[in-house]
Amino acid sequence: GKKYKCNFDASFNHENHHSNVGWVVRDHCGIQCFWGSTSIGQTSSPLEAEAKALLLAMQQVWCTGLRSLCFEGYCKTLFDVLEKKSAEFTIKKICSDISYWTSKFVECKLQHTKRSNNIPAHLLAKKGPPNSIFFS
């Protein structure tokens, strides 16, 4: 089947701890298939927001029927935790949820990328709707 890539990102407000997440799915030619953003309310840290962004992106993509994807983000700490290179107790539960969702896909790669490759997802997370979900 065709290969798809999903870039995800989170924004974190340091004053009120409010977070938004955004995701963009592209096909093997780089054409945007769909995207979305939503508020996820309060998070304890930027790392928790990033972990929830990945989890939410996986769930939203699952709903579209796609089963073979690479999920890309630029939070190196998150990928280190997911690859068990470092431990981070604060997101342990979310990481086990991410593992569960990873196993549901036929093919699911989690990949770190540089910030410049993640701009559309970043903009969606930054400009996300204050208390609803937006989906293309």
TrEMBL record:
<protein>
    <recommendedName>
        <fullName>RNase H type-1 domain-containing protein</fullName>
    </recommendedName>
</protein>
<dbReference type="InterPro" id="IPR036397">
    <property type="entry name" value="RNaseH_sf"/>
</dbReference>
<dbReference type="InterPro" id="IPR002156">
    <property type="entry name" value="RNaseH_domain"/>
</dbReference>
<dbReference type="InterPro" id="IPR012337">
    <property type="entry name" value="RNaseH-like_sf"/>
</dbReference>
<feature type="domain" description="RNase H type-1">
    <location>
        <begin position="7"/>
        <end position="127"/>
    </location>
</feature>
<dbReference type="GO" id="GO:0004523">
    <property type="term" value="F:RNA-DNA hybrid ribonuclease activity"/>
</dbReference>
<dbReference type="InterPro" id="IPR044730">
    <property type="entry name" value="RNase_H-like_dom_plant"/>
</dbReference>
<dbReference type="InterPro" id="IPR052929">
    <property type="entry name" value="RNase_H-like_EbsB-rel"/>
</dbReference>
<dbReference type="Pfam" id="PF13456">
    <property type="entry name" value="RVT_3"/>
</dbReference>
<dbReference type="GO" id="GO:0003676">
    <property type="term" value="F:nucleic acid binding"/>
</dbReference>
